[in-house]
Automatic annotation (TrEMBL):
InterPro entries attached to this UniProt entry: B-gal_small/dom_5, Bact_Beta-galactosidase, Gal_mutarotase_sf_dom, GH-type_carb-bd
MF terms (GO), sorted A to Z: beta-galactosidase activity; carbohydrate binding
This protein's GO CC annotations: beta-galactosidase complex
Alphabetic keyword roster: Glycosidase, Hydrolase
Organism: marine sediment metagenome
Name of protein: beta-galactosidase
């Protein structure tokens, strides 16, 4: 079954150490060491911040048990509500439910890319994503791309994960003035026909 202790990983995370170094006049590197549950070693996150606005994020983590997902979640302003991605699409896909979706460049508004399951739950995931852009009507926004050849799983919602967990019906989901953006290195499959493939 699913180990539900992972749900508390973010809220119980504690920062053990933060350091930084100046690489050059236009680059700073920040090192963050965090203690996380179910870990063999602390979570090691490095942010390399460049003068042109680019930020390179590297995460290193060794879990002590199977994970549901490994990634980062952020809130971005609501006007960046158009998602364009290079990956599988156009419909949602998962680790073990993706062969029917071709790799290409797709685009749509966040409200069009979510899937209203009868019981509110996580939805709208796209797999094998090389890059994703969240933009406004003028084309300005945020670009996230992968380095090192490991594709991402991406999803974006006009509500939060807490909203999804608390709602019993879709009409109970609020429309926030910001977007929840999930950027995952890997996410567990849904299982079913081949349960073993549901592992991370």
């Amino acid at each position: 079954g699913i180990d539900k202790t992972w749900k508390k990983a973010s809220e119980t995370r504690t920062i053990k150490n933060i350091n930084y170094e100046k690489i050059n006049s236009k680059t700073i590197r920040v090192y963050v060491i965090s203690q996380v549950i179910n870990a063999e070693k602390p979570l090691d996150t490095t942010y390399t911040i460049y003068g042109n606005g680019d930020i390179l994020i590297e995460n290193k983590f060794t879990p002590s048990k199977n994970m549901i997902r490994f990634g980062m979640q952020m809130e971005i302003i609501g006007e960046f509500n158009r998602m364009t991605w290079f990956g599988r699409g156009p419909h949602e896909t998962m680790l073990d439910r993706k062969t029917g979706a071709a790799v290409g460049i797709y685009s749509g508004f966040v409200k069009e890319l979510i899937h209203p399951y009868i019981r509110p739950q996580e939805n709208g995931n796209r797999t094998d994503v090389r890059w994703v852009a969240m933009t406004n009507v003028e084309g300005s926004g945020v670009l996230i791309s992968v380095l090192g050849g490991t594709n991402l799983s991406i999803s974006a919602w006009p509500y939060t994960i807490k909203d999804l967990e608390e709602a019993k019906h879709n009409h109970e989901l609020p429309q926030r003035d910001y977007i929840t953006l999930n950027v995952d290195h890997r996410q567990q499959g849904v299982g079913g026909d081949l349960p073993a493939l549901a592992l991370l």
